[in-house]
Amino acid sequence: MQYNTDNQGRRGFLVRATQALSALIGGALGIPAFVYLFTPAKSHSTGGWVDAGDISQLKLNAPEELPFRRVRMDGWKIITEKSTAWVVRLSEKEVVAYTPQCTHLGCAYHWEESKGQFLCPCHTSNFSIDGKVLNGPAPRPLDRYLVKVDGTRLLIGPEQSKTKGA
Ligand code: FES
């Protein structure tokens, strides 16, 4: 008789321990799954402004390629991307920043000092210093970033709409 009572007590303890462990595992797996399934994904872009550096030494009509880092969110991942912009001081008050890809097929172009033009090596498109197409096959002017000048610092924003042109 004593044996059965001990046995039932032990069995009851094991059943309760198994149930408690199952509940613990279910919670550990269920809560992250619930959060994943029922909370909205974050925006794909922070859309923020990035400090691209000091432009106090930037000479008039002398384009420089400035590197900068942009942070964006893709779902639950935070991605840091390195990018560049061709920055030109067109006048004392006007600074523009072009995206670094040619508007034909996206090759990296460069500033050709001797010609005073941006040249794309892939299919020989040329662009003027203000981004206009001088020689195709590029179908539109260079794309631009939104820019702000804060003192001597250049802030680069999102890319302007490709339909607006230069
Ligand atoms: S990619 Fe620049 S001209 Fe074709």
Automatic annotation (TrEMBL):
The chain crosses the membrane at residues 20-39. The keyword Transmembrane helix applies. GO terms for cellular component: membrane. The keyword Hydrolase does not apply. Residues 87-156 form the Rieske domain. One of its GO terms (molecular function) is metal ion binding. InterPro entries: Rieske_2Fe-2S, Rieske_2Fe-2S_sf, Rieske_Fe-S_prot, Rieske_Fe-S_prot_C. Its cofactor is [2Fe-2S] cluster. SUPFAM superfamilies: ISP domain. Keywords: 2Fe-2S, Disulfide bond, Iron, Iron-sulfur, Membrane, Metal-binding, Transmembrane, Transmembrane helix. This is Ubiquinol-cytochrome c reductase iron-sulfur subunit. It comes from Paludibaculum fermentans.
